[in-house]
């Protein structure tokens, strides 16, 4: 399958049409962005690592019964996917406090939560992805109650699967972001799961091994992504 027209250039990936109107090619670029696109940098091999990382995780999730967009890995940096009608919200699950929740609530980074939290954010960089609730999603027609129930249930199931996968590799899955979309009426996991969209800390040292290394200028960004990939067994 070959890339045809460029349909969308996001902050880290470019989406192309294919000969099949129901399939897209996602090209993982080397761009890394933070703070809604304000901070941007390129890293060698980043597209390849995230593409292979994402494919590995999505296959694990499928094996656990989570329906995903994945059709197949086309190359080091290209993934063939089902073309989804994306629900324009981000689903965030947290096991520990970090990032935006520490700005919204009187909590410090690193607090283990009694049970995982689930939050929706509207995908809108200009408005800095504001938090929204079930009522907003239904009232503005972004999704139905059934979509909401499924996004929550799938996100929490994904948390159970991935918490264990990372824990077995000596890593804490602190939080992560997912995006879902519809394909012939079925809700599927879309977009990507990689160290760009989650937080991972080493269990023993609490060293950050995710995009916070870029956000916080900690250095060794790609080394951290490679280490995590290596520890969970992603073939790079
Ligand atoms: P952003 O839009 O946040 O800058 P990316 O650079 O990751 O993000 O671009 C990828 C875009 O493709 C996102 O807008 C995402 O919602 C969309 N997308 C991801 N998977 C699919 C899919 N299977 N079908 C259609 N669109 C998708
Ligand atoms: N996240 C993401 N894209 C976004 C916002 C958040 O991938 O546009 C991820 C982020 O990497 C983290 C989780 O979602 O793993 C929770 O992010 P948070 O709400 O703490 O926002 P942040 O402070 O990271 O922007």
Shape: globular
So how many helices? 6
Helical content class:
25-40%
Rg over alpha carbons: 17 Å
CATH C-level category of the largest domain: Alpha Beta
Give every kind of bound small molecule, once each. adenosine-5'-diphosphate, uridine-5'-diphosphate
Biggest pleated sheet: 7 strands, antiparallel
Number of spatially distinct domains: 2
Do you know the CATH architecture of the largest domain?
A: 2-Layer Sandwich
Mean pLDDT: 98
Kindly report the CATH topology of the largest domain.
D-amino Acid Aminotransferase, Chain A, domain 1
User: At the fourth CATH level, what is the homologous superfamily of the largest domain?
Assistant: ATP-grasp fold, B domain
Cα-to-Cα separation, first versus last residue: 22 Å
> What's the count of strands?
14
**Helix and strand pattern:** EEEEEHEEEEHEEHHEEEHH
Strand content: 25-35%
Structural class: alpha+beta
Low-confidence stretches are: none
What does this structure look like?
- It is a single chain.
- 28% of the residues lie in helices and 33% in strands.
- It has 236 residues and is of the alpha+beta class.
- The chain has two domains: 3-82, 2-Layer Sandwich (Phosphorylase Kinase, domain 1); 85-226, D-amino Acid Aminotransferase, Chain A, domain 1, CATH 3.30.470.
- Strands 8, 9, 10, 11, 12, 13 and 14 form a seven-stranded antiparallel sheet that branches. It has a five-stranded antiparallel sheet with strand order 1-2-3-7-6. A two-stranded antiparallel sheet has the order 4-5.
- A hairpin with a 2-residue loop joins strand 12 and strand 13 (186-190).
- The longest helix has 23 residues, at 145-167.
- The two termini are 22 Å apart.
- The protein binds adenosine-5'-diphosphate (ADP) and uridine-5'-diphosphate.
- Uridine-5'-diphosphate (UDP) binds at residues 90, 92, 99-101, 129, 175-177, 197-199, 211.
């Amino acid at each position: 399958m070959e890339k045809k027209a460029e349909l969308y250039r996001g902050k880290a990936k470019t989406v192309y049409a294919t000969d099949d109107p129901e399939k897209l090619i996602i090209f993982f670029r080397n761009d890394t962005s933070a703070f809604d696109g304000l901070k941007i940098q390129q890293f060698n091999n980043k597209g390849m690592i995230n593409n292979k990382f994402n494919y590995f995780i999505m296959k694990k999730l499928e094996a656990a019964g989570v329906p995903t967009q994945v059709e197949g890995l086309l190359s080091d940096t290209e993934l063939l996917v089902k073309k989804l009608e994306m629900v324009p919200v981000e689903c965030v699950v947290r096991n520990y406090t970090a990032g935006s929740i520490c700005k919204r609530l009187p909590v410090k980074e690193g607090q283990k939560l009694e049970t995982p939290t689930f939050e929706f954010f509207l995908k809108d960089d200009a408005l800095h992805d504001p938090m929204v609730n079930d009522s907003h999603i239904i009232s503005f027609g972004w999704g139905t109650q059934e979509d909401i129930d499924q996004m929550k249930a799938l996100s929490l199931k994904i948390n159970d699967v991935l918490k264990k996968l990372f824990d077995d590799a000596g890593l804490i899955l602190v939080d992560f972001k997912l995006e879902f979309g519809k394909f012939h009426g079925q809700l599927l996991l879309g977009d990507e799961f990689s160290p760009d969209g989650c937080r991972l800390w080493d269990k023993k040292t609490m060293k950050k091994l995710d995009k916070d290394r870029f956000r916080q200028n900690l250095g060794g960004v790609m080394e951290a992504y490679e280490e995590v990939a290596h520890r969970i067994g992603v073939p790079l």
